[in-house]
Amino acid sequence: MPRLADTPFSVLELAPIRDDGGPAEALHNALVLARYADMLGFTRFWVAEHHNMPGIASSATAVLVGHLAAGTTRIRVGSGGIMLPNHAPLVIAEQFGTLATLYPGRIDLGLGRAPGCDPLTARALRRDRLGSADDFPQDVEELQRLLGPAQPDQPVIAMPGVDTNVPIWLLGSSLFSARLAAQKGLPFAFASHFAPRYLHEALRVYRENFRPSPALDKPYVMLGVPMVAAPTDEEAEFLATTLYRRVLALIRGQSTVLRPPVESMAGQWLPHEKEAVGEFLGLAVVGSPEKVRARLGVILEQTEADELIFTCDLYEQADRLRAFEILAGFR
């Protein structure tokens, strides 16, 4: 059974944009948080690809990964993830092969099979060929070949990229990627930070079907966890209303810019919306250090996760930094 003190902690960042701010502030805050996580001893700092979303500044994911890697010294930096249907595998191999060449031993490549955007935006991203989630297994295989050793008479080579063997992770919120990660012997990150419904079934499928590979000899699971930690339960619940308001806006199809916390969510949502936000954040940990520690212990006991990766959507940057400092105190 994994112990909290021995479990690697990581950060998943969306470079959130405040209602009174802009992308420059969001990207600056991402770098400040990455440096802080590096200092605190966190294992990874991943950024997620989203497009056409006014509240998220991490759309040019590979560019941001390079910026964060340049500004840190030890922590692994990567994608959580690159939405592969939006890109030709060769382009991703060249981008992450370049990153791995510049920052050897520090780059991760997490891959998702959803476009992470609406159909119109997906078409704008790949005008010549609209990618499909159905192509995901073949695209992953092609990407593995491009990042692996060159083969005799190989017609297309990623340069840089070839023989960098950038670690590939598969991300998912259902059973498809769990099965594929198991078949390929790859580490699996479950998107329980926004879709915890199939968590336990996906972990069972992944572990029961895992086949050892050159990349991994046994299953390795990382779970996404929304987190709001503060000195008291009352302050944490207050700060968490920014997160609740953001998820509510997403459900309503509104702008997901960060909005200030409010004293109460009463009157902010309808009963069915409150329930939907609760389902979205089913794995969230919100509270004082004691409450967060206890909740994380239960999550580890129930899932036997190998690693936890935390999201933290708070309005004030200082509150985010403090929340991760609280987490680091559990180590």
UniProtKB/TrEMBL annotation:
Q: Per the database record, which ranges form the Luciferase-like domain?
A: 9-303
Transmembrane parts of this sequence: none
Major enzyme class: oxidoreductase
Keywords tagged on the record: Oxidoreductase
Enzyme Commission numbers on file: 1.-.-.-
One annotated GO molecular function: oxidoreductase activity
Q: Which family does it belong to?
A: To bacterial alkanal monooxygenase alpha and beta chains.
- Put simply, this protein is called LLM class flavin-dependent oxidoreductase
Give the organism's phylogenetic lineage: Bacteria, Pseudomonadati, Pseudomonadota, Gammaproteobacteria, Pseudomonadales
